[in-house]
Design goal:
The chain is of the alpha/beta class and about 375 residues long. The chain has 14 helices and twelve strands. The strands form three sheets. Strands 2-8-7-6-5-3-4 form a seven-stranded mixed beta sheet, with helices on both faces. The chain has a three-stranded antiparallel beta sheet with strand order 9-10-12. It has a two-stranded parallel ribbon with strand order 1-11. The longest helix is centred in the C-terminal third of the chain and has 23 residues.
Protein backbone atom coordinates (compact mmCIF):
# COMPACT_ATOMS: atom_id res chain seq x y z
CA UNK A 1 0.00 0.00 0.00
CA UNK A 2 1.26 3.51 -0.81
CA UNK A 3 0.19 6.38 1.44
CA UNK A 4 1.12 9.98 0.68
CA UNK A 5 0.90 12.16 3.79
CA UNK A 6 3.14 15.03 2.72
CA UNK A 7 0.52 17.24 1.09
CA UNK A 8 1.80 20.40 2.77
CA UNK A 9 5.01 19.95 0.79
CA UNK A 10 3.13 19.44 -2.47
CA UNK A 11 -0.02 17.81 -3.79
CA UNK A 12 -0.74 15.65 -6.79
CA UNK A 13 -1.92 17.78 -9.68
CA UNK A 14 -5.60 17.16 -10.39
CA UNK A 15 -6.23 15.38 -13.72
CA UNK A 16 -8.36 18.25 -15.05
CA UNK A 17 -5.71 20.83 -14.16
CA UNK A 18 -2.94 18.67 -15.63
CA UNK A 19 -4.89 18.15 -18.86
CA UNK A 20 -5.45 21.89 -19.18
CA UNK A 21 -1.75 22.61 -18.63
CA UNK A 22 -0.86 20.08 -21.32
CA UNK A 23 -3.40 21.61 -23.70
CA UNK A 24 -1.84 25.05 -23.33
CA UNK A 25 1.67 23.66 -23.74
CA UNK A 26 0.85 21.85 -26.97
CA UNK A 27 -2.15 23.56 -28.62
CA UNK A 28 -3.10 26.97 -27.24
CA UNK A 29 0.58 27.72 -26.66
CA UNK A 30 0.65 31.37 -27.72
CA UNK A 31 2.24 34.16 -25.71
CA UNK A 32 -0.59 36.03 -23.96
CA UNK A 33 1.14 39.30 -24.87
CA UNK A 34 1.02 38.57 -28.61
CA UNK A 35 -1.61 40.43 -30.64
CA UNK A 36 -2.45 37.56 -33.02
CA UNK A 37 -5.14 34.94 -32.39
CA UNK A 38 -2.81 32.48 -30.65
CA UNK A 39 -1.96 35.18 -28.12
CA UNK A 40 -5.60 36.17 -27.71
CA UNK A 41 -6.53 32.54 -27.08
CA UNK A 42 -3.83 32.17 -24.41
CA UNK A 43 -4.79 35.45 -22.76
CA UNK A 44 -8.37 34.20 -22.46
CA UNK A 45 -7.19 31.39 -20.15
CA UNK A 46 -5.26 33.84 -17.99
CA UNK A 47 -8.31 36.05 -17.61
CA UNK A 48 -10.52 33.07 -16.83
CA UNK A 49 -8.13 31.97 -14.10
CA UNK A 50 -7.98 35.44 -12.59
CA UNK A 51 -11.77 35.46 -12.56
CA UNK A 52 -11.99 32.02 -10.92
CA UNK A 53 -9.51 32.96 -8.19
CA UNK A 54 -11.10 36.36 -7.63
CA UNK A 55 -14.45 34.65 -7.02
CA UNK A 56 -12.93 32.49 -4.27
CA UNK A 57 -11.61 35.63 -2.55
CA UNK A 58 -14.56 37.90 -3.42
CA UNK A 59 -12.19 40.43 -4.90
CA UNK A 60 -11.59 42.10 -8.27
CA UNK A 61 -9.73 40.30 -11.06
CA UNK A 62 -7.29 43.19 -11.36
CA UNK A 63 -6.24 42.59 -7.75
CA UNK A 64 -4.69 39.22 -8.70
CA UNK A 65 -1.03 39.21 -9.83
CA UNK A 66 0.35 35.86 -10.97
CA UNK A 67 3.82 34.80 -9.83
CA UNK A 68 6.09 31.75 -9.99
CA UNK A 69 4.82 30.54 -6.60
CA UNK A 70 4.52 31.30 -2.92
CA UNK A 71 8.12 32.34 -2.39
CA UNK A 72 7.99 34.98 -5.12
CA UNK A 73 4.60 36.19 -3.89
CA UNK A 74 6.01 36.69 -0.38
CA UNK A 75 9.12 38.41 -1.71
CA UNK A 76 7.11 40.75 -3.92
CA UNK A 77 4.71 41.57 -1.09
CA UNK A 78 7.37 42.33 1.52
CA UNK A 79 10.07 43.97 -0.56
CA UNK A 80 7.62 45.79 -2.81
CA UNK A 81 5.60 47.21 0.08
CA UNK A 82 8.65 48.06 2.19
CA UNK A 83 10.34 49.98 -0.61
CA UNK A 84 7.16 51.79 -1.63
CA UNK A 85 6.49 53.01 1.92
CA UNK A 86 10.04 53.60 3.20
CA UNK A 87 9.62 57.38 3.36
CA UNK A 88 6.80 56.94 5.88
CA UNK A 89 8.74 54.63 8.15
CA UNK A 90 11.11 51.67 8.27
CA UNK A 91 9.55 49.48 10.94
CA UNK A 92 8.25 46.04 9.97
CA UNK A 93 6.53 43.38 12.11
CA UNK A 94 6.31 39.64 11.62
CA UNK A 95 6.18 36.51 13.77
CA UNK A 96 8.84 34.14 15.07
CA UNK A 97 7.31 31.20 13.18
CA UNK A 98 7.21 32.38 9.58
CA UNK A 99 8.16 30.34 6.52
CA UNK A 100 11.74 30.96 5.32
CA UNK A 101 10.40 32.89 2.31
CA UNK A 102 9.16 35.52 4.77
CA UNK A 103 11.80 35.14 7.47
CA UNK A 104 14.75 35.41 5.10
CA UNK A 105 13.15 38.26 3.15
CA UNK A 106 12.73 40.16 6.41
CA UNK A 107 16.40 39.54 7.19
CA UNK A 108 17.29 40.95 3.78
CA UNK A 109 15.22 44.04 4.53
CA UNK A 110 17.04 44.42 7.85
CA UNK A 111 20.27 44.55 5.85
CA UNK A 112 18.72 47.36 3.78
CA UNK A 113 18.13 49.49 6.87
CA UNK A 114 14.66 48.39 7.95
CA UNK A 115 13.92 47.40 11.55
CA UNK A 116 11.99 44.17 12.15
CA UNK A 117 10.09 43.20 15.30
CA UNK A 118 9.64 39.43 15.65
CA UNK A 119 6.51 38.56 17.66
CA UNK A 120 6.84 35.43 19.86
CA UNK A 121 4.27 32.65 20.06
CA UNK A 122 2.64 30.66 22.85
CA UNK A 123 3.29 26.92 23.45
CA UNK A 124 0.78 26.14 20.68
CA UNK A 125 2.56 28.25 18.08
CA UNK A 126 -0.01 31.08 18.11
CA UNK A 127 0.76 34.76 18.56
CA UNK A 128 -0.77 36.75 21.41
CA UNK A 129 -2.72 39.82 20.33
CA UNK A 130 -1.16 41.88 23.13
CA UNK A 131 2.28 41.26 21.64
CA UNK A 132 1.09 42.60 18.28
CA UNK A 133 -0.46 45.61 19.98
CA UNK A 134 2.76 46.34 21.87
CA UNK A 135 4.85 46.02 18.70
CA UNK A 136 2.93 48.59 16.64
CA UNK A 137 4.57 52.01 16.37
CA UNK A 138 4.03 55.27 14.54
CA UNK A 139 6.73 54.32 12.03
CA UNK A 140 5.32 50.82 11.37
CA UNK A 141 4.57 50.40 7.67
CA UNK A 142 4.03 46.63 7.26
CA UNK A 143 2.85 43.64 9.29
CA UNK A 144 3.19 40.09 7.91
CA UNK A 145 1.47 37.12 9.58
CA UNK A 146 1.25 33.56 8.28
CA UNK A 147 -2.35 32.32 8.43
CA UNK A 148 -1.54 28.60 8.78
CA UNK A 149 1.85 27.49 9.99
CA UNK A 150 3.49 25.03 7.61
CA UNK A 151 5.15 22.95 10.34
CA UNK A 152 2.39 22.35 12.88
CA UNK A 153 -0.81 23.78 11.36
CA UNK A 154 -1.22 26.56 13.93
CA UNK A 155 -3.98 28.96 12.89
CA UNK A 156 -3.18 32.60 13.51
CA UNK A 157 -5.95 35.14 14.31
CA UNK A 158 -5.50 37.06 11.07
CA UNK A 159 -8.95 38.64 11.07
CA UNK A 160 -8.38 40.05 14.53
CA UNK A 161 -4.92 41.20 13.49
CA UNK A 162 -6.26 43.01 10.44
CA UNK A 163 -8.88 44.87 12.43
CA UNK A 164 -6.50 45.95 15.17
CA UNK A 165 -3.74 46.98 12.74
CA UNK A 166 -6.03 49.18 10.67
CA UNK A 167 -7.79 50.61 13.72
CA UNK A 168 -4.36 51.63 14.94
CA UNK A 169 -3.30 53.06 11.54
CA UNK A 170 -5.19 52.39 8.28
CA UNK A 171 -2.00 53.10 6.31
CA UNK A 172 -0.13 50.08 7.71
CA UNK A 173 -0.06 47.32 5.10
CA UNK A 174 -1.17 43.91 6.34
CA UNK A 175 0.29 40.93 4.47
CA UNK A 176 -0.89 37.36 5.02
CA UNK A 177 1.05 34.31 3.86
CA UNK A 178 -1.93 32.08 3.00
CA UNK A 179 0.06 29.42 1.17
CA UNK A 180 -1.05 26.68 3.60
CA UNK A 181 -4.48 28.26 4.14
CA UNK A 182 -5.80 28.93 0.64
CA UNK A 183 -8.01 26.03 -0.38
CA UNK A 184 -8.52 25.03 3.27
CA UNK A 185 -10.56 28.03 4.44
CA UNK A 186 -12.89 30.65 3.03
CA UNK A 187 -10.65 33.71 2.92
CA UNK A 188 -12.17 37.11 2.14
CA UNK A 189 -9.41 39.74 2.23
CA UNK A 190 -11.64 42.80 2.30
CA UNK A 191 -13.70 41.55 5.23
CA UNK A 192 -10.55 40.40 7.03
CA UNK A 193 -8.79 43.71 6.26
CA UNK A 194 -5.93 42.00 4.41
CA UNK A 195 -4.00 44.19 1.94
CA UNK A 196 -1.68 41.55 0.47
CA UNK A 197 -2.16 37.78 0.36
CA UNK A 198 0.13 35.06 -1.02
CA UNK A 199 -0.93 31.66 -2.39
CA UNK A 200 0.60 28.79 -4.35
CA UNK A 201 -0.90 26.41 -6.93
CA UNK A 202 0.86 23.20 -6.01
CA UNK A 203 -0.61 23.22 -2.49
CA UNK A 204 -4.15 22.94 -3.94
CA UNK A 205 -3.63 20.23 -6.58
CA UNK A 206 -2.43 22.68 -9.21
CA UNK A 207 0.89 22.67 -11.11
CA UNK A 208 4.22 23.66 -9.58
CA UNK A 209 5.87 26.93 -10.53
CA UNK A 210 2.86 29.23 -10.27
CA UNK A 211 1.13 31.22 -7.56
CA UNK A 212 -0.51 34.58 -7.04
CA UNK A 213 -0.36 37.67 -4.89
CA UNK A 214 -3.60 39.42 -4.05
CA UNK A 215 -2.95 43.17 -3.96
CA UNK A 216 -5.84 45.22 -2.63
CA UNK A 217 -6.70 48.04 -5.01
CA UNK A 218 -4.70 51.19 -4.27
CA UNK A 219 -2.27 49.43 -1.94
CA UNK A 220 1.05 51.19 -2.11
CA UNK A 221 3.52 48.64 -3.50
CA UNK A 222 6.18 48.74 -6.18
CA UNK A 223 7.44 46.01 -8.51
CA UNK A 224 10.75 44.31 -7.80
CA UNK A 225 11.39 42.93 -11.30
CA UNK A 226 11.37 44.93 -14.50
CA UNK A 227 10.90 44.16 -18.15
CA UNK A 228 7.97 44.22 -20.54
CA UNK A 229 5.41 45.62 -18.07
CA UNK A 230 3.22 42.52 -18.13
CA UNK A 231 0.46 42.35 -15.49
CA UNK A 232 0.11 46.13 -15.39
CA UNK A 233 3.82 46.44 -14.70
CA UNK A 234 3.64 44.75 -11.32
CA UNK A 235 5.31 41.51 -12.44
CA UNK A 236 7.17 41.67 -15.74
CA UNK A 237 8.07 38.57 -17.72
CA UNK A 238 6.28 36.27 -20.12
CA UNK A 239 3.07 35.21 -18.44
CA UNK A 240 3.01 31.50 -17.59
CA UNK A 241 -0.33 30.81 -19.27
CA UNK A 242 -0.23 26.99 -18.87
CA UNK A 243 0.54 27.18 -15.16
CA UNK A 244 -1.95 29.97 -14.56
CA UNK A 245 -4.68 28.05 -16.38
CA UNK A 246 -3.92 24.99 -14.26
CA UNK A 247 -4.03 27.02 -11.07
CA UNK A 248 -7.36 28.56 -12.00
CA UNK A 249 -8.84 25.14 -12.67
CA UNK A 250 -7.44 23.75 -9.39
CA UNK A 251 -8.79 26.72 -7.41
CA UNK A 252 -12.25 26.25 -8.92
CA UNK A 253 -12.18 22.53 -8.09
CA UNK A 254 -10.90 22.90 -4.53
CA UNK A 255 -13.61 25.43 -3.62
CA UNK A 256 -16.52 23.55 -5.23
CA UNK A 257 -17.02 21.24 -2.24
CA UNK A 258 -14.81 22.98 0.28
CA UNK A 259 -17.09 22.83 3.31
CA UNK A 260 -17.75 19.09 3.01
CA UNK A 261 -14.11 18.31 2.23
CA UNK A 262 -12.80 20.31 5.18
CA UNK A 263 -15.34 18.75 7.55
CA UNK A 264 -14.11 15.31 6.53
CA UNK A 265 -10.46 16.34 6.94
CA UNK A 266 -11.14 17.62 10.47
CA UNK A 267 -12.77 14.29 11.30
CA UNK A 268 -9.72 12.44 9.97
CA UNK A 269 -7.41 14.72 11.93
CA UNK A 270 -9.31 14.10 15.16
CA UNK A 271 -9.28 10.36 14.57
CA UNK A 272 -5.58 10.29 13.70
CA UNK A 273 -4.40 12.43 16.62
CA UNK A 274 -6.48 10.48 19.13
CA UNK A 275 -5.02 7.19 17.90
CA UNK A 276 -1.47 8.57 17.87
CA UNK A 277 -1.75 9.69 21.48
CA UNK A 278 -2.62 6.15 22.53
CA UNK A 279 0.90 5.10 21.51
CA UNK A 280 3.67 5.22 24.09
CA UNK A 281 5.64 8.48 24.40
CA UNK A 282 3.99 10.27 21.47
CA UNK A 283 3.35 14.00 21.76
CA UNK A 284 1.16 16.13 19.49
CA UNK A 285 2.75 19.50 18.74
CA UNK A 286 0.20 22.30 18.65
CA UNK A 287 -3.58 22.31 18.67
CA UNK A 288 -5.72 19.62 17.09
CA UNK A 289 -9.25 21.09 17.05
CA UNK A 290 -11.13 23.51 14.83
CA UNK A 291 -8.80 26.25 16.03
CA UNK A 292 -6.05 24.65 13.92
CA UNK A 293 -5.67 23.77 10.25
CA UNK A 294 -7.59 20.68 9.11
CA UNK A 295 -4.75 19.06 7.19
CA UNK A 296 -1.57 19.22 9.32
CA UNK A 297 -0.58 17.05 12.29
CA UNK A 298 2.82 17.39 13.93
CA UNK A 299 3.82 14.63 16.33
CA UNK A 300 6.95 13.94 18.34
CA UNK A 301 8.08 10.34 18.86
CA UNK A 302 10.36 10.32 21.91
CA UNK A 303 13.50 8.27 21.50
CA UNK A 304 13.42 8.19 17.69
CA UNK A 305 15.00 10.76 15.40
CA UNK A 306 12.56 12.03 12.80
CA UNK A 307 14.81 11.10 9.85
CA UNK A 308 15.00 7.50 11.07
CA UNK A 309 11.23 7.14 11.41
CA UNK A 310 10.66 8.97 8.12
CA UNK A 311 12.77 6.48 6.15
CA UNK A 312 11.37 3.49 8.03
CA UNK A 313 7.89 4.60 7.04
CA UNK A 314 9.05 5.22 3.48
CA UNK A 315 10.24 1.60 3.30
CA UNK A 316 6.63 0.65 4.01
CA UNK A 317 5.17 2.95 1.39
CA UNK A 318 4.29 5.89 3.65
CA UNK A 319 5.56 9.38 2.78
CA UNK A 320 5.80 12.07 5.47
CA UNK A 321 8.03 15.03 6.35
CA UNK A 322 10.53 15.66 9.12
CA UNK A 323 9.16 18.99 10.33
CA UNK A 324 8.54 20.73 6.98
CA UNK A 325 9.74 20.29 3.42
CA UNK A 326 11.94 23.38 3.63
CA UNK A 327 13.51 22.42 6.95
CA UNK A 328 14.16 18.83 5.89
CA UNK A 329 17.18 19.87 3.81
CA UNK A 330 17.98 23.03 5.76
CA UNK A 331 17.48 22.40 9.50
CA UNK A 332 17.86 26.09 10.35
CA UNK A 333 14.80 26.84 8.23
CA UNK A 334 12.43 25.11 10.64
CA UNK A 335 11.95 27.43 13.62
CA UNK A 336 8.41 26.82 14.85
CA UNK A 337 9.05 24.06 17.38
CA UNK A 338 11.95 25.98 18.90
CA UNK A 339 9.83 29.13 19.14
CA UNK A 340 7.15 27.09 20.94
CA UNK A 341 9.70 26.11 23.58
CA UNK A 342 10.37 22.49 22.61
CA UNK A 343 13.78 21.18 23.60
CA UNK A 344 16.23 19.81 21.06
CA UNK A 345 15.07 16.22 21.53
CA UNK A 346 11.48 17.26 20.90
CA UNK A 347 12.44 19.13 17.77
CA UNK A 348 14.53 16.27 16.42
CA UNK A 349 11.77 13.69 16.89
CA UNK A 350 9.00 15.62 15.08
CA UNK A 351 7.19 14.22 12.07
CA UNK A 352 4.67 16.18 10.02
CA UNK A 353 1.70 14.33 8.55
CA UNK A 354 -0.34 16.38 6.10
CA UNK A 355 -3.58 15.35 4.44
CA UNK A 356 -5.40 16.23 1.24
CA UNK A 357 -9.02 15.95 0.16
CA UNK A 358 -8.11 12.48 -1.14
CA UNK A 359 -6.74 11.11 2.16
CA UNK A 360 -8.74 8.16 3.51
CA UNK A 361 -9.30 6.57 6.91
CA UNK A 362 -7.89 3.31 5.53
CA UNK A 363 -4.62 5.08 4.72
CA UNK A 364 -4.43 6.50 8.23
CA UNK A 365 -5.17 3.10 9.78
CA UNK A 366 -2.36 1.56 7.74
CA UNK A 367 -0.02 4.35 8.85
CA UNK A 368 -0.96 3.96 12.51
CA UNK A 369 -0.39 0.22 12.31
CA UNK A 370 3.07 0.64 10.80
CA UNK A 371 4.07 3.28 13.37
CA UNK A 372 2.96 1.06 16.26
CA UNK A 373 5.11 -1.79 14.87
CA UNK A 374 8.13 0.39 14.14
CA UNK A 375 8.40 2.43 17.34
CA UNK A 376 9.45 -0.36 19.74
CA UNK A 377 12.03 -1.65 17.25
CA UNK A 378 13.49 1.77 16.49
CA UNK A 379 13.62 2.70 20.17
CA UNK A 380 15.51 -0.48 21.04
CA UNK A 381 17.94 0.25 18.22
CA UNK A 382 18.43 3.82 19.43
CA UNK A 383 19.28 2.73 22.99
CA UNK A 384 22.07 0.40 21.86
Amino acid sequence: MQVYLDNSATTACSPKAADLVCHLLTEDFGNPSSMHQKGVDAEKYVKESASAIAKTLRCQEKEIVFTSGGTESNNLALIGAALANARRGKHLITTAVEHPSVKNTMRFLEEQGFEVTWIPVDPYGVIRMDDLKNALRQDTILVSVMMVNNEIGALQPVEGCGKYIHDYDPNIIFHVDAIQAYGKFHIYPKRMQIDLLSASAHKIHGPKGVGFLYIKDRTKIRPVSFGGDQQRGMRSGTVNAPGIAGMGRAAKEIYENLDADIERMYELKTYFTEKLQLLENVRINGKTGRDSAPHIVSAGFAGVRSEVLLHALEDRGIYVSAGSACSSHHPSAGNTLAAMGLDKAGQESAIRFSFSVHTTKEELDYTLGQISELLPVLRRYTRR
